[in-house]
Amino acid sequence: MQPDATDYSRKWHVMAAIAMGIFLGTIDGSIVNVALPTLVRAFDTTFAAVEWVVLAYLLTVTTLMLSIGRLGDMVGKKPIYTAGFVIFTLGSVLCGLSPTIGWLVGFRILQAIGASMLMALGMAIVTEAFPPGERGKALGISGSMVSIGIVVGPVLGGLLIGALSWHWIFFVNLPVGIVGTWMVLRFVPGSRPRAGQRFDLAGAIALFAGLVALLLALTGGQQSGFGQPRVQGLMAFSLAIAVLFVVIEARSPHPMIDLRLFRNILFDVNLVTGFFTFVCMSGTIILLPFYLQEVLGYAPETVGLMLAVVPITVGITAPLSGMLSDRAGTRPMTVVGLISLVAGFAAVSSMEVDTTTLGYLLRFLPVGIGLGLFQSPNNSAVMGAVPRNRLGVASGLLSVTRTLGQTTGIATMSALWAGRVAFYLGGHAVAEATAAPAAVQVAALNDTFRVAVVLLALGLALAAWGLIYERRQASAAT
């Protein structure tokens, strides 16, 4: 038996423990989104203030994950992951006890610190726990847990708010957190990191400052427009810090991110295509509730069920895709998944003001299938491309790619949709894009989906080139 946690006999116990953390993180996000109107009334405040319950969490998670991934590689993943469970659970209880909206935002930051520990290291621990030939299957199951959390969150949140109060959307995390902490302590093996490593504090500070500036620019641009001097100043600052970060990392003997990882072209392709996918998915899905409720006239309960078609399909497809990628290779599966995504988004861009329920479901089925086929092999390819002592950073990179894609997609696609609404109105702005005539909203929505088709087609071209490049390398080696 090799050292460093290569005893695979407890792999499914490890998977169960990590799945608890994944489920906890995803269900919490979707539950809170459902509760936002309730929180406005409960605290007698504005929606802009309540938005920071979500934004503070997202900012904290995104800015900390890479640093925590590096710490996991240095000091061991198990203690940090365990601490993440404890901090997340404690933060959840304190969120439920919050007397004001300010306290709730503050405790959400504490909760997000714990969540960043769980999200940064979960895939790295799963990758270590399973043999390489089963990595795709394991990461596929992890992807299914994300889908289950997304589906269960709104339903459970609505039930808890209706039957009890908003406090219980946070208190519900307590039993899951206690059981998850026990499972991690009991089943996740410890690891012995390589000695002599140092934490790159200068790189971590630069990374934190650059990400905060970028995320504030994206959220500010969505609210007030990307032409505002403050937003453009934040964008310029984040770009300058990015250049500084590269300089720091190139000179550091123990860098936060080993820039040599990016010399692997296939590694870069997987990160870029993953980013494009999250931009398109998050940026367009957030517009669908307005279409389903305001244009098609469905009740909120029905809208929740209709929105679940994509995560349910992903939950079914992802494990199968992971197992197939273990046999056929990761790159062919990512190409097939992106083909399905392009076809699905092209179909969705033909929605009308009187689209039927069946028409909606048939359009979105290829989207869910494509995402399920793509995501697990893509994650497996990224995790399999780095050495064992960099798995924490690779896991953090994947998570940051996802959250940055979500933030970028929501900001840019929402702004694009509102801009297209104004265009179809002949440049005459309305107070809210949702107040425009239904035909105008649908035309703008279809244009937004067509932009997503172009981005996904670009991702497909990159993935196809990566497949050809990989096979040429294999042929040359043979």
Give structural notes.
With 478 residues, the protein is mainly alpha-helical. It has three domains: 1-188, Growth Hormone, Chain: A; 200-253, no CATH class; 257-470, MFS general substrate transporter like domains (Growth Hormone, Chain: A, Up-down Bundle). It is 80% helix and 0% strand. It is built from 17 helices and no strands. Helix 2 (47-75) packs antiparallel against helix 16 (391-424). The longest helix has 40 residues, at 438-477.
Briefly say what this structure is.
The chain is mostly helical. 80% of the residues lie in helices and 0% in strands. Helix 10 packs antiparallel against helix 15 (357-384) and helix 13 packs antiparallel against helix 14 (330-348).
Features:
478 residues; mainly alpha; Growth Hormone, Chain: A; 17 helices; 80% helix; globular; disordered N terminus
Secondary-structure blueprint of this entry?
Elements: H1 11-42, H2 47-75, H3 77-96, H4 101-129, H5 135-163, H6 168-171, H7 173-187, H8 201-224, H9 229-251, H10 265-285, H11 288-295, H12 300-307, H13 309-328, H14 330-348, H15 357-384, H16 391-424, H17 438-477
Helix pairs in contact: 1-2, 1-4, 1-5, 1-7, 2-3, 2-4, 2-8, 2-16, 3-4, 3-7, 4-16, 5-13, 5-15, 8-9, 8-16, 10-15, 10-16, 10-17, 11-12, 13-14, 13-15, 14-15, 14-17, 16-17
